[in-house]
Amino acid sequence: MAGRTLYRKLVESHTVVTLDADNVLLYADLHIMNEYTSPQAFAGLAEHGRKVPAPGQQLAVVDHIIPTHAESPRVIQDPASALQARNLKRNCDLHGIPLFDTNDPLQGIEHVITPEHGMIRPGMVVLCGDSHTTTYGAFGALGFGIGTSEVEHVLATQTLVYRLARDMRIRVDGLLPAGATSKDLILHIISRISAQGARGYVVEFTGSAIHALSMEARMTLCNMTVEAGARGALIAPDATSVGYVLERAVDIDGPMAQAARTAWAQLVSDADAAFDAELVFDASVVEPYVTWGTSPDQAIPVSAAVPNPADAADAIARASAERALDYIGLTPGSQLQGLPVQRVFIGSCTNGRIEDLRAVANVVRGHKVAAGVRAMVVPGSGAVREQAEAEGIAALLREAGFEWRKPGCSMCLAMNDDVLAPGERCASTTNRNFEGRQGRAGRTHLMSPAMAAAAAITGCITDVRQLGLSR
């Protein structure tokens, strides 16, 4: 019998029935919802008189449309957004689904709060109407985003008609050098393989560089793998991930914990498992990265010059690069270092965790936000916010001139009142730099939290390594 990949093991263990050679009916251990991808699904249930048979395996969060200003209680002023939040609460109350509502002290971004409360465990299948559900692959769980019609199907049946993906293994050996983070690593990888380089694949990351990463760094890596077109991302469970889960999953203790360790130890690709594609990278050559265009794969080391579209591989890539440079306001051969920014945003499901905020504090300590820069820090959850306040991070950032905000998706996307003005240039720790993503005609440069902090205190895109800090 041929060896199986970790991805195949996860799919097979959750297959209710095989539909054909390419599709299965997949069981979901956990289904997460937010306020903007669930309304039509609940409407469909009501139209057909259907119930939710497993409400305890659902979780709902208000995160995308919520304001993050410091006022208490928080009030969603936009009428359409307020209606979405009210409808989500009404539907959750009707079906008995747990909800992290607008003013819940533990409210936060869905992909931040679920791991921190021990809800994500190795071997699970986790679905959500959000593309960055790939985050959960950091735990050896298969997570991926689904559409609104699929949300309805999962609510009604706890299953999903699922088209099988191909297997890709990305090995990353070596160690990240000082100044480089997992955000830089994933931007490095995406820039090399393109925004379609993993299309149709579930990517398993392995290698010494991956195993050296913290859990929060692994979540950043898996979160952004979808930006290479991947349908999922996986890292086999190890002592780091198992320890993280057992520390937070308070329901797993005693003999159950030992049984869990034994079961999770089997969640690895077999030695003779065949992958459809394999790639190898060297972490030791990774530098701090910054995007120059309007796609996450349009990224370069901060020390490099903006590429010339004339050097693109084909006419389509050349046209894309030309459009991106026109939108972002750059010229071929120019330097990103020294480029002035008007806004800095630190947060999101990619980089809104406590480790990210510690990295920011390490850079900011002893400095002030540069004149003319508006810098915002939005914790990924109420728990992260509380911890940052307890550690003195919040006070340090406020003293430096940062806005210290309440949790939410915030300026990751223009679905709330945290948006860029036309023409504003932003150093951002988010996951996407598409045209208008952070506000109409806003210009976004993706980078790590440390790099964003460096931009805040210097007023321009700056190589954080020049500040003499390791992280």
Automatic annotation (TrEMBL):
Domain Aconitase/3-isopropylmalate dehydratase large subunit alpha/beta/alpha positions: 9-459
Cofactor dependency: [4Fe-4S] cluster
Role: Catalyzes the isomerization between 2-isopropylmalate and 3-isopropylmalate, via the formation of 2-isopropylmaleate.
InterPro entries recorded: 3-IsopropMal_deHydase_lsu, Acnase/IPM_dHydase_lsu_aba_1/3, Acoase/IPM_deHydtase_lsu_aba, Aconitase_4Fe-4S_BS, Aconitase_4Fe-4S_dom, IPM_dehydratase_rel_enz, IPMI_cat
Enzyme Commission number(s) of this protein: 4.2.1.33
Family stated for the protein in its record: Belongs to the aconitase/IPM isomerase family. LeuC type 1 subfamily.
Catalytic reactions of this protein: (2R,3S)-3-isopropylmalate = (2S)-2-isopropylmalate
Source species of the chain: Cupriavidus pauculus
Broad EC category: lyase
Pathway: Amino-acid biosynthesis; L-leucine biosynthesis; L-leucine from 3-methyl-2-oxobutanoate: step 2/4
Pfam families recorded: Aconitase
Cofactor note: Binds 1 [4Fe-4S] cluster per subunit.
Name this protein carries in UniProt: 3-isopropylmalate dehydratase large subunit
Residues given in the record as [4Fe-4S] cluster binding sites: C349, C409, C412
Quaternary structure, from the entry: Heterodimer of LeuC and LeuD.
GO terms for MF: 3-isopropylmalate dehydratase activity; 4 iron, 4 sulfur cluster binding; metal ion binding
Gene: leuC
